[in-house]
Amino acid sequence: MFPTTKNTLSIVQKLVIKDLQMAETDIEFVQNTEAWEELHCKLSFVIRHLLQHDFERLLQAMYRIDVSEIKFREAMQNPDLNSVANQITDLVLQRESEKAYFRELYQS
Q: Measured on CA atoms in the order 28, 2, 86, 37, is the torsion positive or negative?
């Protein structure tokens, strides 16, 4: 994982909201997050919902985020839905953190 700051968390929140094309209620849910663990928990909840109710939207988001297809498929092999959601959340946060880190790095 890349070095993270409060600003990185804010950037990652914005990227997640944009890339997952969240509804207004989900946006408020994710934006009101002050710690990485809390963001992980909330995002895992959203991803679990997408796994159950809108898998196509989840796949489109993974493409936009540029999550490794191989790692995504590996995560999907787990029979436990909560574990799958947590693994996908890890992949999303890792990739969005990379993007945020490089944006901060090259912005200054």
A: negative
